[in-house]
Amino acid sequence: MKRSSGVRVAATVAVSALSLALVTGCGGGSDDSKGSDGQTAKALSAAELEKAVIAQGDVTGYKVDSGAKQLPKSKDEVKSGDEKCAPLAYAMSGQAPGDAASSTAAMAKQEKKKPTADPSKSLEDLSEGEFEDAFTDAMDLNMTVVGLSSYDGDGAEETFKSVSDAVKNCSGGFPVTMQGTDQKMTGVTAAKASGAGDESVAFNLKSDAEDGDVATTHVEVVRHGSTIATYYTINIGLMLTDKPYGVPAPVIKAQSAKLK
After folding, report:
1. In angstroms, rounded to a whole number, what is the distance separating the alpha carbons of residues 101 and 89?
2. Does the N-terminal or the C-terminal CB of the chain have fewer CB atoms within 10 Å?
3. pTM to 2 decimals?
4. The predicted structure's pLDDT at residue 133
5. Percent of the chain scored above 70 by pLDDT?
6. CB–CB of 9/209 below 8 Å?
């Protein structure tokens, strides 16, 4: 991403980050639609899912908001211009990618790092380069939207497959509307998944920013039996410097531990 347009792009992406959640994809797994007694899998209740989603104190170095108000309240606030890509749009927003019996979401935001800029200088005294470096450092934080949804029968497996299929079928991108804001996803590429749960798929999602720059965000979708966990991560600071990043392992590890 061009440093010269970093501030403008960051402002655009920051607004989008509060209303979007994007996705990442690659994986494999096992058949877990039935319990050890051969009974059809049962979805977690809404109350059980609320207890299962990560909360403050579960992830070291992150502040977790279990009732993030900036996230879409329902799937009605999320629209995809291409039906086959809808599971990706839902996963982007922390909503259930499939027809779930229950769902919930939380946001995990990395705690601020110590500033590297000279604290003796005011913003007015910083050169353009120093200002951009300070801004980039301040925005070098992972923000991850975690969505949980639970399904009866083989619903979780079918939902996971719909996400995996969409990663392949929507590689050319797709239009999406989140909470009234239109955006164009320009590409979806497979990425290496964590291997968590019974099945996991990860992918990078690209969208056009100002001045022809490209903004990249990351998503992972993991199936834990009858429950699907989705993770959408954005790091504006690393986007500005073209440095690689992904869904933070500590967040996936903490959420996976609560679903065992």
Report:
1. 19
2. C
3. 0.79
4. 54
5. 71
6. yes
